[in-house]
Amino acid sequence: MDLDRLRPYLKIRYLLPGSLLVLFLLFLLWLLMIYISLPDVSALVKKNPKTTALIQQRIQEAKQQGKKLRINQRWVRFKRIPKLLRQAVRVSEDASFYLHEGVDYTELKESFKKNWEKGEITRGGSTITQQLAKNLYLSTERSYLRKIKEYFIAKRLEATLSKYRIFHLYLNIIELGPGVFGVQAASRYYFGKNVEDLTLGEMVRIAAVIPKPLKVRANGNSRWLRWKARWILHKLLKYGYINQEQYDETIDEFE
């Protein structure tokens, strides 16, 4: 056997473990730098944010198109938001919200698998807490860096705020239409009434808009909206949040 020919490969074999260690340490240092740069969320315990990163992003996008975006956002107390609307949002966006600590690892695993198979980020797998983190501090950019930041901010939000407060903030800043943020603003914009006066069908419509706020109107009749509304109603019935009579009275609206 020619040892001279094998010597370069042997050298690589012995250097590889050390190189991997260095790469791993650099990766940890990179994560630490990201974590240190993240925002302090402690002010949110008692104060409502005056604006969000997403609101500012939408304003800039409109400006680039030569337009001026009118922001419609109204804060409303948690108790004024109907329980059924809260339940509709949870079954639609994050059914295990009160069980996890900011991240649903089962959903995250499935999302990573789907994205890996397609070679791009097409599925977010975000919890309500992660969506709040994105809306408050990040952007709608689809990248792994943003997902990493979203993960860390979500964990920080969960460590600092109560579930009650996280959900309250989310329901008041979530994007629900062009320039429309929060369930109270959406109630006034789409149905001309306060959030506490919504019918079951109207609540389901607002919850259905969340994944596609700029493409689907809550007071519209698109195929996607009707499908999503039926899906939410089925989940509300399945979990016992509404009874059969409520389901039967509302489902025809979306057939």
TrEMBL record:
Keyword check for Nucleotide-binding: no
Regions that span the bilayer: 12-38
Annotated ranges, domain Glycosyl transferase family: 70-236
Superkingdom of source: Bacteria
GO annotation terms (biological process): cell wall organization; peptidoglycan biosynthetic process; regulation of cell shape
Any one GO cellular component localisation term in the record: membrane
Keyword flag Phosphoprotein: no
Keywords, ordered alphabetically: Cell inner membrane, Cell membrane, Cell shape, Cell wall biogenesis/degradation, Glycosyltransferase, Membrane, Peptidoglycan synthesis, Transferase, Transmembrane, Transmembrane helix
GO terms for MF: pentosyltransferase activity
Pfam families hit by this protein: Transgly
Protein name: Monofunctional biosynthetic peptidoglycan transglycosylase
Organism: Caldithrix abyssi
